[in-house]
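We examine the record.
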Amino acid sequence: MHTDARNIEDHSHIEGDICIIGAGAAGISIALEWLNTPYKVILLEGGGFEYEERMQQLYRGKTTGQRYYPLESARLHYFGGTTGHWAGFCSPLDEIDFKKRDWVPHSGWPIQRSDLDPFYARAQKNLDLGPYEYSFQYYREEDKSLIPLPFDEDAVFNKMWQFSPPSRFGTKYRDTIIKAPNIHLYTYANVCQINANENVSAVKEVTVKNFAGKEHTVKARYFISACCAIQNARLLLASNLQAPNGLGNDNDLVGRFFMEHLEIKSAELWFADPDPLKLYMLDFGKTKYRAELGITAKKQEEHKILNGTASFTPLEVARKQPAFIDIWTSDAKQREKNMGDFAKREDAFKAANGSRSYQLFTRVEQAPNPNSRITLDAEKDELGMQRAILHWELTPLEKRSIRTIYEIIGRQAGMSEKGRVRLLEYLWDENDHSWPEFTGGGWHHMGTTRMGDNPKQSVVNADCRVHGIDNLYVAGSSCYVTAGAPNPTLTLVALSLRLSDHLKKRVMAG
């Protein structure tokens, strides 16, 4: 069932059993789990069904610290959320990502990879992926022409990715949500305030506003904030009527530990003879799976480094491509043109026998850092909500990890007599902790409402419930404790399914 919140009477009161704030990958995945149940689910989407520049400007904010993309361009503010422009990269986190690592401050999830495995398997369907199989051997059995680089598997392994078409949740699930009798979707319903009871032990209602000048309240038994990592933190911080520092922020942790994946060109790999590297190549829209080079948990611990992977681009192409940080602008039309030009240059190079030289491109996790954070600005958006400020701060561990990753790969390339690795100049001096201008992120916002057992060190518990607030949950990648190497979408959908199962048990228990 769908209602445009601009068209109902001002100051309407909406009631249900469960209220989901945000209709992106997390919010829609949770809503789908409640189809055909006896419970009334309220799904609130701030935008409509299409991109609107005015709506997008509600996400505008400031950035400080490490150079970053314009905030209004990093997420989409309409039904389906950022699945409207994601590239479909999917792989689960590794077992080591969940563990406490003594060389990674603030690491250690309250759950393990095995706790998420059944939900990863279910999430594959939501994202139109194949079977829940991510071992290289599985795909080698399917295609014997997938030849791995001859590296020691105790040092470097083939980290597999599957590719969603990519699934556009706003298109794929729109009719299902609208036709569901117990799912009540409200578009143009921007949540600007979460209102708790007097002792801040439970949420009573949320306040929604829109550009039509209307304001409504939504009451429910349970509330789930399923916005992106920046907006989840922004909403909790702005909800300060009963809690002066914001909901869930008694220990000044909401907004902290913002994480991205550093995505940056780092090295070159030169072969004696051309090699097509079929196992590692990507053709957008056609590739169903591929491998990247990963560093084993054993080597990560030995060298005290973060988790990261290396992918390959023919050097003839890579040298002509600008960095994403330079072409991803706040202007949507210019951004679309820039990315189209980027894709054309990729497609222009087709060498059947492969290339003798490849650029090695890194995706590495950011170490959890409390100084990398979201705060509120004095400036307010058009609906009266304080805008977000992102301070993105990196540490020396990220750069040392990238350098060490390619030292390990370089040794393997030399020992196998396959080729030679050349580090890019910014990695030559191990005492230089600065970053080059082309340093960018993957648009992968994580952290800000991190998960943990101790309220003094985390915002939500292992079930994603905000510490101290009985009926308020947070969904999505803002709950991540560490980022791992893979893109976050598959994991955030799996976490959302797990949250939904937990909530069903609570609801059914009365």
In short: The radius of gyration is 23 Å. The mean pLDDT is 95. The first strand starts at residue 2 and ends at 4. The longest helix spans residues 396-415.
